[in-house]
Automatic annotation (TrEMBL):
GO molecular function, one term: hydrolase activity
Protein keywords: Glycoprotein, Hydrolase, Repeat, Signal
A single GO cellular-component term on record: integrin complex
Domain of life according to the entry: Bacteria
Protein name as annotated: VCBS repeat-containing protein
Length: 634
């Protein structure tokens, strides 16, 4: 605080001296040159003949600003952009921000030397960045005389917006699992750039207030559905109405810099969108996902029901977001896709597989061909998804028909693992070899027809069965997430195995080697991961959900791992469950951290209400789906 005050006083003092000496000069602080001059565009509006003014302002720049004239606080080179805003610090009255070498914008610096700039958002700026595209950001300090200097440049990749309050940092969005007698919740822990940590208690709490088994919050996602640059929340309620099986999904918009306001729908709270299912047994909201399918810059709502193998897409209508609809009352989805009684829709993901600028869709169907499993691939045609998909069936050598592999069942992830700007496909087969589990990674050939070979580029085998729960269940692949953990611009992968290590659970980090992607690894035959995280006690389901997300804005995807703790039942389980936050470092991620033998998480989140805190964490897609009726209505 004292050093900042001294700098401010010094700046003011020199400013007054130079103002007095340069009155009538071009560099007079009461005259600012046009913005074109700041971008170094040659024209007659940018005078160059005032050598005295440039001499003094040059001294001022060198004396006060040097290397730290301007900083970007929430992005570094190769960052994945998970906010609608660019934020930073500056020692000058303003900064000049340019995107992709286009003419930029002059942004004022506030009284505490902070600045904030809105990135493209269709409802505000009239433009937008497509998911997965690469962009250049340039920021220059601008002094009181209009001189721009101290340029900072970062090259970034557009990711999913997870910043609910627009402070530049992706927030932690997760749920507290309901049961047939306990209220469910969706909660937001804001991330704080000054500490690099999420809040210790929830900043936003959403609930339907019903203790009658609606399963509100059983599945959760996020997206910018109204295009204002702030992340909104999409929450599934698959047992709506209470003890029912029709299902519903809700969208809650951000209130801008106030974030998503807490709401209790039983006590006067409100939602922005409610979509209700069509028939009993549908359980709409079993899987929820936000993504821009029709390429208008607004995220759409993707809802599927594996129970009846159906998927729906509801388009955003612009700044008003996705409209409410009751399918049971005759309303129609914008797009409806049907599977073949194969649990179509148990998982899904969006990404640009062929690099044509449009989002494609992949959907898992794990019970196809007696639990062999397959994946439906919908390649967009200029923003329109085809009714007839392409298919990808698991390699027979690892997952033969009837083998119970459940290929495509637990997780699907589209991400660029080899750096060619085309989204590659990672999918799990948790049921392989009596639930030992494995993961396949397929590199896209960037084509529209058959973009993935039938043979994977990478196969990751889970740990040996003998080391897992009861010697026959590892559940490797129960969760999976992609992100850049070492800042090299290539997507890495974490894989959860919540019953490995004698049921303590593990999460494994596999990093890309560059253009060759992630190397083949067999954890049961001497292979190893870059880092391994271990649970603190047996039976807590550590790793059943795991997410890569840059919480602190340093360009490295950090790791969030839930341990929902399903051991206790009834009232004794209230408040059970934890979500562990592991901060990544450039070389080895968080390092090996075994919580049962002295390993440490960077922070641990808890919540006092509900059941199984951390039941779901918002990601590009929902991480896990449970089709066991006894589980849903325990």
């Amino acid at each position: 605080m004292k050093s900042g005050l001294c700098v401010s006083i010094l700046r003011f003092f020199i400013f007054i001296l130079l103002s007095a000496s340069l009155i009538n000069c071009w560099s007079n602080p009461f005259y600012k040159p046009p913005v074109e001059c700041l971008g170094k565009i040659n024209n007659t509006l940018c005078p160059k003949e005032d050598s005295l003014g440039f001499f003094w302002s040059g001294i001022l720049a060198g004396f006060l600003y040097a290397e730290n004239a301007v900083t970007i606080s929430n992005l570094v080179n190769y960052s994945i952009v998970q906010s609608g805003f660019l934020v930073g610090k500056a020692l000058t009255p303003s900064v000049y921000v340019s995107l992709d070498d286009a003419p930029g914008t002059l942004v004022s610096v506030d009284g505490i030397s902070s600045w904030r700039y809105q990135l493209p958002a269709p409802a505000v700026t009239g433009s937008f960045w497509k998911l997965g595209t690469k962009h250049k950001i340039s920021v220059k300090a601008v002094d009181a005389f209009g001189n721009a200097f101290g340029e900072k440049i970062v090259n970034v990749i557009k990711g999913n917006n997870r910043d609910t309050n627009g402070d530049g940092f992706a927030d932690v969005i997760l749920s507290v699992s309901p049961s047939n007698s306990v209220v469910g919740y969706g909660v937001v822990f804001l991330s704080h750039g000054d500490t690099g940590m999420p809040s210790s208690t929830p900043d936003s709490i959403l609930t339907d207030g019903q203790a009658g088994g609606t399963y509100f919050g059983d599945r959760i996602s996020a997206g910018d559905f109204n295009g204002d640059g702030y992340a909104d929340m999409l929450i599934g309620s698959q047992a709506y109405p209470a003890f029912g099986t029709i299902g519903a999904a809700y969208i809650f918009h951000s209130a801008g810099q106030n974030g998503i306001r807490s709401q209790n729908l039983q006590s006067g709270g409100s939602y922005n969108t409610m979509i209700q299912g069509q028939n009993g047994g549908e359980r709409l909201g079993s899987m929820v996902l936000g993504g821009d399918v029709n390429n208008d810059g607004y995220d759409d709502a993707i809802l599927t029901s594996p129970w009846i193998s159906v998927g729906y897409i509801f388009y955003s209508q612009g700044s008003s977001g996705v409209p409410s609809k009751n399918l049971g009352a005759g309303a129609l989805a914008d797009i409806k896709h049907l599977g073949a009684a194969d649990n179509f829709g148990q998982t899904s993901s969006v990404g640009d597989i062929n690099a044509d600028g449009y989002m494609d869709l992949v959907v898992g169907a794990p019970t196809f061909n007696s639990n062999q499993g397959r994946i439906y691939i919908y390649i967009s045609n200029a923003g329109v998804l085809p009714q007839t998909p392409q298919y990808l069936v698991s390699p027979n050598a690892q997952c033969p028909p009837g083998g119970g592999c459940s290929y495509g069942g637990s997780m699907i992830q589209l991400a660029d693992f080899n750096g060619d700007s085309c989204a590659d496909l990672a999918t799990t087969a948790q049921g392989y070899n009596t639930n030992r589990g494995l993961v396949f990674v397929y590199h896209s050939n960037c084509g529209s027809a058959n973009p993935f070979s039938n043979l994977p580029n990478t196969t990751l085998f889970g740990p040996a069965l003998s080391t897992c729960n009861a010697g026959n269940n590892c559940s490797f692949g129960a969760s999976m997430s992609a992100g850049d953990t070492n800042g090299d611009g290539f997507a890495d992968l974490i894989v959860g195995a919540y019953q490995s290590s004698a049921n303590f659970g593990n999460v494994y980090l596999f990093q890309s080697a560059g253009t060759s992607g992630i190397a083949n690894t067999d954890l049961g035959s001497g292979g190893s991961a870059v880092a391994v995280l271990g649970g603190e006690s047996a039976g807590l389901n550590f790793g059943i959900f795991s997410v890569l997300q840059d919480v602190n804005g340093d360009g490295l995807s950090d790791i969030l791992v839930s341990a929902p703790d399903p051991i206790a039942t009834g009232a004794s389980q209230a408040g059970k469950g934890k979500v562990h936050f592991f901060k990544n470092t450039p070389s080895v991620g968080p390092g090996n951290q075994n919580l049962s033998v002295g390993g440490r998480a960077t922070a641990t989140l808890t919540y006092s209400n509900g059941l199984s805190f951390g039941n779901s964490i918002a990601l590009d897609q929902i991480d896990f789906f449970e089709s066991n009726v006894s589980f849903l209505f325990r």
